[in-house]
Input
Amino acid sequence: MNLKQLAHMLALSQTTVSRALNGYPEVNEETRRRVVDAAKRHGYRPNPSARRLATGKTGMIGYVLPTGASVDIDPHFVEFLSGLGDYARSHELDLVLSPADADDQETTYRRIVANRQVDAVYISSPRPADRRVALVNALGIPFIVHGRSEGLDFDYPFTDIDNEGAFHEAARLLIQLGHRRLALINGDDRETFAIHRERGVRRALVASGLALGDRHVCSVVMTEENGYRATRRLLEEGDPPTAIACSSLIMALGVVRAVRDLGLTIPGDVSLIAHDDVFPWLRPENFSVPLSTTRSSIRLAGARVAERLAARISGLEEGARGEVWPVDLVVRGSVAGAKAIPGKV
Amino acid sequence: MNLKQLAHMLALSQTTVSRALNGYPEVNEETRRRVVDAAKRHGYRPNPSARRLATGKTGMIGYVLPTGASVDIDPHFVEFLSGLGDYARSHELDLVLSPADADDQETTYRRIVANRQVDAVYISSPRPADRRVALVNALGIPFIVHGRSEGLDFDYPFTDIDNEGAFHEAARLLIQLGHRRLALINGDDRETFAIHRERGVRRALVASGLALGDRHVCSVVMTEENGYRATRRLLEEGDPPTAIACSSLIMALGVVRAVRDLGLTIPGDVSLIAHDDVFPWLRPENFSVPLSTTRSSIRLAGARVAERLAARISGLEEGARGEVWPVDLVVRGSVAGAKAIPGKV
Output
């Protein structure tokens, strides 16, 4: 059965049937239900060309994928995609990944918008004054930012977690436990999430009359090896920290290995709190010493971004609302009170 | 500049120009170069509609993404995607992910083929007698299988690694080192890669008059936790293995943790070899005891699958050629000779 036949059977116009199936708000609920029931009963499934003709929509969400021999896609991406894909499936949306040179994504954004390849796009890993956000905003295609930029002179819709609040709470707990020298092993600090996390740690320290030493902040690609190297350097040089906040569970593997290699223990010598995106394949409670974490499911964020994109495509969501999710602080065995330091007060 | 103008300027037909830009073999090399040079000089970039009109092609590769609340996409996917995306970019191909109910992918394959949404598809994680392979073969769309099925009554194009050979070599090394009781912590043994790995281990044991005990084979989802649980069970029950082969680096993290929790050591009490897909964020040489591995870059496999898809789309590759890549066995500190067992010969 095609669209024409379905419309004829229902005594509705093809446009009305198509809009009903695509969740347009101008179709009333009773009609929408009648159309959806009939479509299901007769196995009608709109094809992209018909959908496009009737609604001007492609049924596709776009994502510009930075690529290059030296670009490693983070495993976080896969969890985000699980959530996004699950929602997209239930709303019959496909996702188009357009690979782009990591240093020139603008050309690709322009192409997919000019060619009307997708109905909406999302942007991830935003930076301050992010040019991609400014570009898609200017191009006028519906979009959602996963995360936040800063310093743009317009508002835009985003879904982010409270990175600053999470790392503020983590640092505050460590300070309350008596720690005075904290270190932060962070991700790429050209990205807003990392800037916010550092801001949170600094704010907690300043509130207690303390400071984050320059040598006590590292910004690295979030691999196990970089977690290891940063920790070795922090603990082997003068003035070692007694507590570490760390931006990923994968880097935390390296932190744990470095502490062990130095003959030290967690939390006896070093307390550790790491950020947990809730990977099914690596759980903080299963670390040799169960890991305290700031926890937020990146899979749920993927589903939420898909939900908002679908709402913007169908006109149910408009405007530039940003939403910020709170982050749980989960305390497990990897934190303890600071040891009294011999000869110091 | 649009296609019409470019064709007019070159005094060629629009079809010829479009085919030249899409690498069709019927356009001779001199013409192709002339067209490509002119397109570059004038900033011409074919849009999908024009491309489709002139060539019948969409410039899209398709992948049906199994989704569902209980479906975890493996982090391997991200590395595969890095390679695939990098090649696709250089050949101006986009990738369409069509999320599908993991238990009903057939409907989605039929839809994307019927609607001509993509020029070719790839299939991953194949199983014996895989219905998806049979379906896309019947539907007549160009495709490549990443991995292999078994027991289908037709040939099909695939790119796979020699999983059986890799695990045969790993087991053979362990046997040569004096190990008699081997265990295999495997992935989902409904999938061909896991079946092949088990076959390799069994073949090596049989060649030395040994066998793989039923209790010494585990088939689990490849998470850290499952690696831990499998190892605890293996080592705590009677007749514990002295060597373990393990299907992923993530599970190997759990193996190492379990061995440590039991007060045992690698390789003193247990030798360990794991399969390494070459993740940039977790390296076997950085395990507390450097890990011996069977190594094959899944990123290169992604690039190769993209390359073959592009060749099939443009008609440069035809037929049902399967290719099998050899796998390196990399020996590091996690293997050692079996200890003489007191009271046994």
The first strand of chain B starts at residue 60 and ends at 67. The CA atoms of residues 310 and 336 of chain B lie 45 Å apart.
